[in-house]
């Protein structure tokens, strides 16, 4: 059998085998789940961390470990449903003493799912990726929740104590990313639902450099490819449409890096009493006579040890009270000189002076060009005077030798040339 035929045979045989893999988890009723905990062990330069999600209502979730910040219900419930697609390919061991061999570099990332009471309904640890040489396979520690001695819930950095259970090589679980990062479970946009087209005015002030600016969107004409924008105020004028649009997009598409807590009203603690940057966007009113919606971002102190800033936001409903972390580069354009937005036309060429030919000008007609200059196009170079009769042009005269006649004088009659 040739190599191609053998490979085809192996693929055909393996497909039914993949379909017969057993589910790694028992069926989960998403509606019954009340909480999810994810605990990550300590890493180099980063302490152990635990994230806890709890159901707020039948359709809403919150991140309890992040000041009850609203979670994205779809992200939470999609994760729970995804567990039903995880399949076990093999079971390397059931010996708890060998479990650590299958953990990641820093240990297992533990996941516990609670329905009712303090005992988890599902408990497992995510270990090494690339199990059995396959990029789509990961080692999981599946705990027997009826027998395993598990750490108490809500303990930061807590991990399930190895007990009854097994290690499996499983496929179908997305093991990438840090599930203790709050951004994984929330809508990461600072202003959810706001798009670039919603904003008609944008105003900002950067206190450290005393820069402030206000952009106003105009009505697009028939020949305009982009909406026109005007930079108002002293030294303002027509703005580059592409640059103005980028400023609006930086605010409407701004992503948070984390949730630092709640209590934005404590202005001095976060630096909101002396903000580094304040950006305010104004939208279109929903109807004539109504107040236009506004969205405001305030950056306070720089977060120690991070390239980010404490931030608070305000929307049409007011200040929500959460203190967010916003990256430095994500707001960089608002720290640039607003004059760079201006669509400045090129300056006209300088006019020649009235009192003579300027530098680089052609000489007046009939005058020879100055030394080192080329004659003007179409003119012949000026000719010098012809040499006197008996002289060669351009040659200097040499003095006559003593007793000899000058070169242009004939010798006297009776004298031989060159004799004394």
Topology, pairings included?
Blueprint: H1 3-19, E1 22-23, E2 35-40, E3 49-55, E4 61-63, E5 69-70, H2 73-82, E6 87-93, E7 109-114, E8 122-129, E9 137-143, E10 165-171, E11 199-206, E12 211-217, E13 229-232, E14 237-239, H3 241-252, E15 256-262, H4 267-270, E16 277-283, E17 294-302, E18 308-315, E19 318-319, E20 322-327
Antiparallel strand pairs: 1-6, 2-3, 2-7, 3-4, 4-5, 6-10, 7-8, 8-9, 9-10, 11-12, 11-16, 12-13, 13-14, 15-20, 16-17, 17-18, 18-19, 18-20
Word description of this protein:
The chain has 2 domains: about 5-185, no CATH class; about 195-340, no CATH class. By secondary structure, it is mostly beta strands. Helices cover about 10% and strands about 30% of the residues. The model is unreliable at about 5-15, about 150-160 and about 390-420 (pLDDT under 50). Strand 4 and strand 5 form a beta hairpin. The strands form 2 sheets. Strands 1-6-10-9-8-7-2-3-4-5 form a 10-stranded antiparallel sheet, with no helix packed on it.
Q: H/E element string?
A: HEEEEEHEEEEEEEEEHEHEEEEE
- The count of helical stretches stands at 4
Task: Give the N-terminus to C-terminus distance in angstroms.
Answer: 122 Å
Percentage of β-strand residues: 25-35%
What brief labels describe this structure?
10% helix, 420 residues, disordered C terminus, ten-stranded antiparallel β-sheet, elongated, mainly beta, 2 domains
